[in-house]
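ok trying again, last paste got cut off:
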Amino acid sequence: MADAYVQVTTTTDSRQEAATLAKSAVLERLAACAQLVGPIASTYWWEGEIESAEEWMVLFKTTSDRFEELAGLITENHSYDTPEIIATPVVAGSGDYLGWVSEQTSAEDDID
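nice, full thing came through this time. structure:
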């Protein structure tokens, strides 16, 4: 595999925001695919207190070369002060699928 692949995860407090982030990333070719999962129940520390919230998870499929731009898009368009942005390496996958991810996240403007 010439490209390194990652799955990037973030969470939001609404399905609408999750869908907007997903569509923006795919439109900008920063992710080949974005999947919404939810609602999920999250428990976490925030400002010295334990919080619980219903959230929506977005899973972005991309190449490691596109991670920084994708993280920037998430940060700029996210409603949270400190959004979760975690990249997990893909250690193996279908060659056809990973090739498709590479094609769809190419930085070339003329892909259709």
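cool. Residues 86 and 103 are 22 Å apart (CA to CA). The first helix runs from residue 15 to 27.
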